[in-house]
Amino acid sequence: xxxxxxxxxxxxxxxxxxxxxxxxxxxxxxxxxxxxxxxxxxxxxxxxxxxxxxxxxxxxxxxxxxxxxxxxxxxxxxxxxxxxxxxxxxxxxxxxxxxxxxxxxxxxxxxxxxxxxxxxxxxxxxxxxxxxxxxxxxxxxxxxxxxxxxxxxxxxxxxxxxxxxxxxxxxxxxxxxxxxxxxxxxxxxxxxxxxxxxxxxxxxxxxxxxxxxxxxxxxxxxxxxxxxxxxxxxxxxxxxxxxxxxxxxxxxxxxxxxxxxxxxxxxxxxxxxxxxxxxxxxxxxxxxxxxxxxxxxxxxxxxxxxxxxxxxxxxxxxxxxxxxxxxxxxxxxxxxxxxxxxxxxxxxxxxxxxxxxxxxxxxxxxxxxxxxxxxxxxxxxxxxxxxxxxxxxxxxxxxxxxxxxxxxxxxxxxxxxxxxxxxxxxxxxxxxxxxxxxxxxxxxxxxxxxxxxxxxxxxxxxxxxxxxxxxxxxxxxxxxxxxxxxxxxxxxxxxxxxxxxxxxxxxxxxxxxxxxxxxxxxxxxxxxxxxxxxxxxxxxxxxxxxxxxxxxxxxxxxxxxxxxxxxxxxxxxxxxxxxxxxxxxxxxxxxxxxxxxxxxxxxxxxx
Length: 607
Known about the structure:
Elements: E1 2-11, E2 14-16, E3 20-21, E4 25-29, H1 36-47, E5 63-71, E6 88-95, E7 100-109, H2 112-115, H3 122-131, H4 140-153, E8 159-166, H5 168-171, E9 177-181, H6 189-202, E10 206-208, E11 214-216, H7 218-246, E12 271-273, E13 279-281, H8 287-307, E14 314-319, H9 327-342, E15 348-353, H10 357-360, E16 368-374, E17 379-384, H11 391-403, H12 408-413, E18 416-420, H13 423-437, E19 446-450, H14 457-467, E20 472-477, H15 491-496, H16 501-507, E21 508-511, H17 522-532, H18 543-547, H19 555-567, H20 573-583, H21 586-589, H22 593-606
Parallel strand pairs: 4-15, 4-16, 9-14, 14-15, 18-19, 18-20, 20-21
Antiparallel strand pairs: 1-2, 1-3, 1-5, 5-6, 6-7, 7-8, 10-11, 12-13, 16-17
């Protein structure tokens, strides 16, 4: 079963994490000590029944709660009765006195005796049969069979949804196996080999049916049943009798354990022989060689897991796999991990905690969870990108990440997004900003996004509305305010995608008479053309050359065509805008009121 969501309460830096989405590949980013590794700790608490230490509890909370949601893979058997709305939802609670219990969320009978009839005493079961006017029986097996048949024939019995206690051993078989790779493992290839061999070793104890369901081989299944009965008897009957001699008020005890045959593998090391027939332990080779071997082991591990056709999921938690790796090794490692997680035939979920921009920018943006810690309160919360249910938004983000610079690292880490309409603005605005503010955009944490066309503004805002609304500024051509424009920016359209009317007033700026290029005076255009694009016939550019084309339907196109024709060169609009911006001085820039207002808004945000 695949983990789709985790939530953590009262554990380490998490007062209440809220729902943390999981994917085939999930990347956790954030500062040191923000709580990335604590997510792995929480997974161990619930999947492995591991106990926390006293220091893991938050001072102001008495219980740790870890809740997990799992999506059944196709063909998984025996899980239906535990599901609610198609998912298995399990919660583990541990108190500061280390009392621990598991619960399953789902539909239960309002008469709790019907939920627990398999464990009722003979007296209680007789009373239950009588309450529903069912025939009596002479033994417990027959009584339980009567109740079971009654429930099958009466599906309309009153039910409600709630949490119901459940034994760990009852649901642990549905849990994925969790393997954790600490930063120290990446320089220790033997550790990785050991984890991979543990999975291969597991296959000696389990078979798979045609649908990939994993089940104990018959002889081990019988052995497990016998061991379980024996342990239950020793705890719930024999031990209880001794306890009751001294504490007669105690009515029952229950054991919580998991019998797992495949934990017996012991891998002690790996030796290598070089081309000179020298044999040495892998621990004796250099760190650089260990890193290369680690990458080869990951690829071997991927092959092992793809051959395995079980429905049993495996979660791999990689804690800072980028540690001490150079750029190319980081890139290779990321793609080995990603490709295995995204292979439709594998049953591996990969979790990566990383600081590496190389890895962050290569991950799907919707798969990234940003852990943010409030230093004053010592609490962390999770941020992630929303609204990916809209395909046009995801398509937009993919497009601009390739051509305009919205990369995953900038989405989560930068301070402000400045959206412009095209390449002319993309070339000119950084120069004008530097002249006015004295710093480059990138120095101030500002990401400039070229939408390529005014028709993309709504897709951009649909994405940023959920994720970076308050730090987004839009600079478009003035013609997007005309009623004749197919891409007019209006309060109604903004409200439709989740913005209020104030955004149009305070975050949107419209430049030029119609478009960006027409803000420059004829004198400024003539000055730049004489310097950068002199006429082929040797004559000077005059202001009138540009005044003539002011009335054209598309000034920027006419400007480019005129310069190309008379200079007998072929500069594009972005090159022309770049050269004009280079020639503008700060005093001239003050007359471009909409651009100055845009810069003021941007600097207000970054402060």
